[in-house]
Specification:
This protein has eleven helices and two strands. With 342 residues, the protein is mostly helical. Among the domains are: 108 residues, no CATH class; 78 residues, no CATH class. The model has no long low-confidence stretch (mean pLDDT 79).
């Protein structure tokens, strides 16, 4: 009945796992225990990555505590006999199927060595199990394998990556200059020591990071000033704030224009190189034909070529003299072709 209610809740709530877990509190208990085990393993990994003789026993304590929560590993039971494989039709005929289409199989029904019993009220006990077994939870299997791997590495002088190592007897000394700078900045010694054991940061683009933080600080300062101006209703302060904002905008626009200027200068250099290539090709072809190479000035301006086009006709066709001459010659050639063919 409990399985049926769980399936009904799960199906009624469109496959929500929490709806099914409300009927089974053990599911939430298991989830909490798994999260606690993951936390212990993560804390042990943090201590294990420091690679010191002081933190290694602490990491092993966290791993052993997680191992105690797991308990002993399940015993693998070998196959004791031959299996009798049934088809779905055999299951339907021989046993009754439940709501999940699973069959209950009776185990140990025949006892070859037993005492005779008296009375009809006594029954032989037996165990029932599902024909289709529930697979193991992959998350539990992964956590157990990870925990065994961490304990093996700790007990065999391996680091967290599996490399052989020999730890020094003492940790490297702390830089006194860093402690003095931290004290001057108002940071405690414990924070400095914890930063020494922290992993390498993932940020590599420090310039972009500094610019981003600068823009964020400027935005935060502008927001605070705008709020103060709105509260005091000071028009002059609002104008000064607008002027500072416009100055910042113009400065950014100036940087963009400077970048565009550099791009145009690079384009000019490209065009100059292209012109030198054309001049070299012209000199080569003139040398092949035996013509003199003219003096090509690089700083000469553009010279417009005069277009010599005659006066157009005044009739309805409106043609230039060259076009009219070409049309007359075409008509004359057609006439001579007709005479020659006849």
């Amino acid at each position: 009945m409990k399985v049926e209610s769980t399936f009904y809740e799960w199906n009624s709530n469109h496959g929500s796992v929490h709806a099914a877990a409300r009927v089974r509190p053990v599911a939430y208990m298991t989830c909490v225990v798994l999260k606690y085990i993951e936390t212990l393993i993560a804390l042990g990994d943090q201590l294990f990555r420091q690679n010191t003789l002081e933190t290694l026993p602490l990491a092993m304590q966290r791993y052993i505590e997680a191992s105690h929560l797991f308990g002993p590993r399940p015993v693998h039971v070998p196959q004791l006999g031959n299996r009798s494989v049934w088809s779905y039709n055999d299951l339907v005929e021989k046993v009754n199927l439940d709501d999940f289409s699973n069959a209950l199989v009776k185990l140990e029904l025949e006892f070859p060595f037993r005492a005779d019993y008296l009375g009809s009220s006594e029954h032989i006990p037996f165990t029932q199990t599902g024909y289709f077994c529930i697979p193991a939870n992959p998350q539990i299997v992964f956590l157990r394998a990870l925990l065994d791997d961490r304990l093996y590495k700790c007990r065999n002088s391996l680091d967290i990556d599996g490399h052989k190592q020999s730890l020094p007897l003492f940790e490297p000394p702390i830089d006194p200059g860093a402690l003095m700078r931290a004290t001057a900045a108002g940071i405690g010694p414990s924070a400095v020591v914890s930063d020494l054991a922290s992993p390498m940061p993932r940020y590599r683009f420090m310039y972009l990071l500094e610019r981003t933080l600068e823009l964020c600080r400027e935005l935060k300062d502008t927001d605070a000033r705008a709020l103060a101006v709105k509260e005091k209703k000071d028009a002059k302060a609002l104008g000064a704030l607008s002027a500072r904002h416009n100055t910042a905008v113009h400065r950014l626009v100036m940087e963009v224009k400077q970048a565009q200027k550099e791009e145009e200068l690079a384009a000019i250099q490209t065009l100059e190189e292209t012109r030198r290539s054309h001049v070299s090709r012209l000199a080569f072809y003139l040398a092949l034909t035996g013509d003199p190479v003219p003096n090509l000035k690089s700083d000469s301006g553009w010279q417009e070529i005069q277009q010599t086009v005659g006066k157009s006709t005044t009739d309805e066709l409106r043609m230039s003299p060259s076009e009219q001459h070409e049309m007359e010659k075409t008509i004359e050639s057609i006439t001579w072709s007709t005479v020659a063919s006849s």
